[in-house]
Amino acid sequence: MGMTFAQKVLAAKSGQKRVEVGQIVTVRPDHLLTHDNTAAIIGKIEADLEQYGVVRPDLNIIVLDHVIPAAAEKNAAGHKKIREFVEKYGLKNFFDVGEGICHQIVLEKGFARPGGLIVGSDSHTCSYGAVNCFSTGVDRTEAAALILTGETWLKVPPSFKITLSGRLQPGVSAKDFILSIIGKLGADGANYKAVEFQGDISGLSMDDRISMANMGIEMGAKIAVFPVDETTREFFRQIGAPLKQDEFVQADAGAEYEKKFSFRLDDVEPVIAAPHTVDNIKPLKELEGLPIDQCLLGTCTNGRISDLARAATLLKGKKVSPHTRLLVLPASRTILSQAMKAGYIQDLLEAGAVLLPPGCGPCLGAHQGVMAPGERTLSTANRNFKGRMGCKEAEIYLAGPETVAASALHGKISDPRKEVSP
Length: 422
Prior knowledge:
Radius of gyration: 21 Å
Helix content: 25-40%
Number of strands: 18
Number of domains: 2
CATH class of the largest domain: Alpha Beta
Largest sheet: 5 strands, parallel
């Protein structure tokens, strides 16, 4: 019997010819990602670090992104502790305030590669499945142990196969598609499963794939992964880290899947994840006209150049509603620079948007963009839990970048297909 993607990667990383679903394997990840939480993680093992040091200086990728610039003395002290840790142990893969959101940095700097294994102390580490990498979140205690030992254990997950066909229609985004899938499967519908996207993926850009893989955890998935194709190869050429011809992992023809699903991209329509769960999916038309106080465009889910381009194109020459605030948060310094050169940032600013530094603050309610009781935000982020953006008495709705831009324009949930030409 053939092996799935997950079985193949975990077999290779555990030094075995074959592993079975449910088997516990000991693996040595290529990288461990941590962010502002690095301060708390190393705080667990300070005595051990003094005695043993870090196991591999190249294992760690550390990105300061969650509360940047520091919003309070506590944040600043944490950042200082991390910088001192990096310098003391000679860690090379450190990205300070302003470089971008950790998941975007891992991708655009070429750390995540096909067939690789990356774990991170952040649940959206699953984003790197977009480039055929087995990537998943771990807790802080596990991350602390990894810093010292370089190894951890994983249980080989069963797999779901999702076969795609067709093309997305104008005004409809990959975010609408992944929200639709989450709505059908449920927030726990893929718990500890390896979700493989297969079929005709040629119509999905790398930005689309990252957005979809990023939200795999929102249906409980251990990983969400795409195969390598020419789009993948072009992405690595663009970042200056071209792939070898055979640098990929794909499931065998006879691989066994726990469940199989098929979806047509042509059938996808704009949807909204209504409060307070990501699987509370409503057709946009059911919520059209609902007043919105704040719109957030960006984050690790939809803060890439194509997302900013779509919003800027829709808003160019127009003005955001006086009753709505539009916050724009590029996923990295590189993307911000690209968007500035292309004129997208200027178009968004002239429309009335507020530009934020590349980081995570508003998404988790830690810094910038916190709401007041009774307010509503329409966001391209990945979670809408109660209190997620800093106020338990506010509401968060999730949507694609086109829907967020159209809604900012009108001050209420609006259908972007009425603003764009086919």
